[in-house]
Predict the structure.
Amino acid sequence: MTNIGILGNGRVGGNLAAALTRAGHHVSVADSAPGVAAGVARVVDLVINATPGAGSLERLSALREELRGKILIDVSNATTDGPDGMPADLIYPGSSLAEHLQEALPGTHVVKTLNTMLFTVMTSPTTLTQPPTAFLSGDDPQARQVVRELLGDLGWRDDWITDLGGIETARAAEAAILFVPHVIRSTGVTPFAISITR
């Protein structure tokens, strides 16, 4: 059992919290109330960033001391929205939110994952008709391994997980968000994920 803190109590955070609790972990969820995120981050072993990506860097930079020495799993996408409210462009073109978080939090092990799919697939990968892919990006190999094992608790088979390597690889995974509005306009809001087939 891992003591996990989830920052963000929207659809993504709530979905992850429920699934990780079912898997036997102790989960604390922080809403946007002042001081709550810091309190949660201070007492847990591992933190998941499920806050809206556009404001994640500012929110998490304020938790530098609370996150020191811990693994931070970033599942967010930092985008600007188009007129229809769907992602239109990247906030950090040529880089990534994950890279900016790692730079702002040098004492924290940032791992990017689960951002290349509709949020329901994060915790139910077997519901798709084809095997999805979950990508891992992070500078610390041990932290990536911990996250790989946590993905297993969410139903991800080991051969469905692709370790891309260092945190700079997160820019490729984050760029995949630009597929999303086009896919949704074409097929509707149905569960989907980016998948590497071999």
